[in-house]
């Protein structure tokens, strides 16, 4: 839980420090869409299909923290650096590096 709180603080600080391209309205729209989409997806997967739970079956209040405060800043960081005006190859490379960074972060978080 300490790592989760530290990650929330770090990613929020990074997201708002490096944000140079987006207006406050765009940040709010990204934040709102991310939360709504994540909640909808989790409701379908968890309660309709019973496929996964983060900590234990049922409603997990601890799971709200990453959904509300960790995933939206990561999306802001991703969109702030995304090469919209570049070629398809540069976009694919950016996406691959970003996904690799997320996977490495998740793997590091799982280590004891």
Task: Explain the layout of strands and helices.
Layout: H1 2-18, H2 24-48, H3 64-69, H4 71-81, H5 88-110
Structure commentary:
- The chain is mainly α and 112 residues long.
- 73% of the residues lie in helices and 0% in strands.
- The chain has 5 helices and no strands.
- It has helices spanning 2-18, 24-48, 64-69, 71-81, 88-110.
- The two termini are 13 Å apart.
Helix and strand content put the structural class at: mainly alpha
Strand content: under 5%
What is the terminal-to-terminal distance?
13 Å
Mean pLDDT across the residues is 88
Task: Tell the overall outline.
Answer: globular
Report low-confidence residues grouped into runs of 5 or more: none
Order of helices and strands: HHHHH
Kindly state the percentage of residues in helix: over 70%
Number of strands: 0
**Computed CA radius of gyration, to the nearest angstrom:** 15 Å
Largest sheet: number of strands, sense, barrel closure:
none
In short:
The chain has helices at 2-18, 24-48, 64-69, 71-81, 88-110.
Can you tag this structure with a few keywords?
112 residues; single chain; mainly alpha
């Amino acid at each position: 839980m300490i790592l989760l709180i530290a990650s929330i603080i770090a990613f929020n600080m990074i997201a708002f420090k490096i944000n140079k391209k987006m207006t406050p309205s765009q940040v709010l729209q990204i934040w709102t869409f991310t939360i709504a989409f994540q909640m909808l997806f989790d409701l379908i997967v968890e309660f309709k299909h019973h496929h996964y739970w983060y900590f234990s079956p049922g409603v997990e209040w601890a799971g709200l923290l990453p959904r509300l405060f960790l995933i939206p800043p990561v999306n802001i960081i991703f969109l702030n650096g995304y090469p919209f005006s570049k070629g398809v190859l540069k976009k694919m490379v950016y996406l691959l590096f970003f996904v690799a960074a997320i996977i490495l972060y998740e793997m590091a978080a799982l280590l004891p």
